[in-house]
Amino acid sequence: MDDSNFTMSIPRKTCEIVQGEEQFIITCDDGREVQMRAHDYNEIYKIPGLYEHLFYENYKCNSPAVVCSELVNTVEGSNQKISNLKVLDVGAGNGMVGEELVSAGVETVIGIDIIEEAAMATERDRPGIYADYFVEDLTRLPSGVEKRITDESLNCMTLVAALGFGDIPPHAFAEAYNLINESGWIAFNIKDEFYSEKDQTGFSKLIQNMTASGVWDIKSKKHYVHRLCQDGTPLEYYAIVGKKQEDIPNSMV
Ligand SMILES: C[S@@+](CC[C@H](N)C(=O)[O-])C[C@H]1O[C@@H](n2cnc3c(N)ncnc32)[C@H](O)[C@@H]1O
Q: 103-135 b/e with 16+ CB inside 10 Å = b?
């Protein structure tokens, strides 16, 4: 980025590069050097433009656009209006998904993320995108916040680049899902490994059980490259859009 106040360098590879563990060094304008890993979101969000530079320019991530366009195509394909969506954006980060939704015509987006730095970066970089932004752990949502969210009668949930890898576990996904009205839209992406028979995270089993028991209907599924790993390996994901039919029961997670 031309106007950035940092430079980024990649240390020499000394071991196998694992998704999320990619290391890099940021040199700030004042000469300070900070070593970070790709999933150190709290540190990354503190530096304006670093998240976008790292994930979108360097690792060629395009997931907010891919997931949101799958959602828009599916909703419009069922003759519903995008402007009628009231969205809960889960793991909202610094607001890139919210920005996509608003530019697609969504009028109400509420964000939730577990770290304060995400809310602060959203306020700094994309003010006004979210009608409300909660800093909460979805696995321990205070009842007052849960009521404020359900009172909004939300009919859509988005969740991009936030499942697995120590981020949002299956039971937190279920918590968020259950905040959405019945017949709401659900759009998210997931690493293809977590949606395969080899999966150990619990997501594959949860999604299969949700489908088999009619908790939701999958309306579209797209296999695509979410981003490149630091060594250039493409990281393949699914973008999935479904229609909620009923809550996920406790027994399923
Ligand atoms: C890779 S970022 C994705 C941000 C945004 N969705 C995007 O696509 O640019 C993952 C986000 O999930 C958030 N997160 C991780 N665990 C969470 C949890 N249990 N509840 C809510 N957010 C969580 C992280 O703080 C981080 O901001």
A: ebebebbbbbbbeebbbbbbeebbeebbeebbb
Question: Angle at Cα 219 formed by Cα 195 and Cα 234, nearest 5°?
Answer: 40
The per-residue pLDDT of the chain, averaged, comes to 94
pLDDT tens-digit readout, 199-217: 999 999 999 999 999 999 9
Res 2: pLDDT? 43
* pLDDT beneath 70, residues of the chain: 1-4, 12-15
In the reported structure, the alpha carbon of residue 93 is separated from the centroid of ligand 1 by a whole-number distance in angstroms of 5
CB 223 within 8 Å of CB 15: no
Query: Domains of the chain by range and CATH?
Result: 6-58 (no CATH), 63-252 (3.40.50.150)
**The three-state (H, E, C) secondary structure of 83-143, written as one string:** HHCEEEEECCCCCHHHHHHHHHCCCEEEEEECCHHHHHHHHHHCCCCCCEEEECCHHHCCH
Would you call 218 helix, strand, or coil by DSSP?
Answer: strand
From the list 183, 160, 225, 223, the residue with the least C-alpha distance to 75 is 183
**Residue 21 alpha carbon to ligand 1 centre in Å:** 16
Angle between helices 63-77 and 96-104 in degrees, nearest 10 = 30
Contact between 130 and 108 under an 8 Å Cβ cutoff? The reply is no
Question: Which of the listed residues 36, 41, 179, 253 should we mutate to test ligand 1's pocket, taking the one with most ligand atoms within 8 A of CB?
Answer: 41
Measured in residues, the chain has a length of 253
